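Dear H.,

Thanks for agreeing to be a second pair of eyes. The structure we're designing against is below in token form, covering all 205 positions.
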């Protein structure tokens, strides 16, 4: 794989402009996922959210962190705070049944973040449940949810997006900083978030 050259300020922000950032992705109630909602909004009217579609998924859930989807499946990440366990689920869109699930615990890392579907891969950060801590960036098989590759990050990562070149865009706790890595985990750039918005989930658009 060819190395991606360092990316500096203005170029970085042009690239981040192509990352769709969502403060709200999933609304979960009680002991079920339902409803998973697609929220439609204008870029300059983030506070005027309207539900355009909704799917009820009858399965236990906890504190939802991220959502990804294609025509066949939903992928949902969540954390079970009392049990100190993270989860990732793949849900069949036709039956709305959980087709695959995986418990996520790596030492003190039990907090999955937002997720990104990129081809056959599902990217997911798994972090300690506190800021200024550590994370493992996981590249999972999107169908089986088994790990294909991973790398360590010396910060709590809460959101991830991946472009067509394999560049990994990551945001830390409360999205105070953005990071750029290559697909193998080499840090390319880091910059502060000038907006002050604590984005929960990122997606390359």
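And this is the sequence the design step returned. I haven't edited it by hand at all.
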């Amino acid at each position: 794989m060819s190395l991606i050259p360092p990316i500096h300020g203005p170029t970085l922000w042009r690239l981040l402009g192509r990352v769709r950032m969502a403060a709200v992705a999933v609304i979960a109630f009680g002991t079920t996922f339902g409803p998973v909602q697609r929220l439609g909004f204008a870029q300059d009217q983030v506070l005027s959210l309207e539900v355009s579609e909704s799917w009820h998924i009858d399965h236990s859930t906890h504190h939802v962190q991220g959502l990804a989807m294609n025509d066949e499946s939903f992928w949902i990440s969540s954390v079970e705070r009392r049990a100190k366990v993270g989860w990732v689920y793949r849900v069949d869109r036709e039956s709305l049944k959980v087709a695959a699930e995986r418990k996520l615990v790596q030492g003190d890392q039990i907090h999955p973040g937002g997720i990104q579907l990129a081809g056959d891969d599902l990217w997911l950060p798994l972090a300690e449940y506190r800021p200024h801590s550590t994370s493992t960036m996981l590249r999972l098989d999107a169908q089986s949810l088994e790990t294909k590759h991973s790398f360590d990050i010396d910060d709590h990562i809460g959101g991830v997006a991946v472009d067509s070149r394999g560049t990994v865009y990551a945001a830390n706790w409360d999205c105070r900083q953005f990071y750029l890595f290559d697909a193998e985990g080499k840090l390319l750039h880091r910059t502060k978030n000038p907006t002050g918005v604590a984005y929960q989930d990122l997606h390359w658009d």
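Two observations from my side: Confidence is low (pLDDT under 50) at residues 1-17, 21-45. The longest helix spans residues 9-16.

Warmly,
E.
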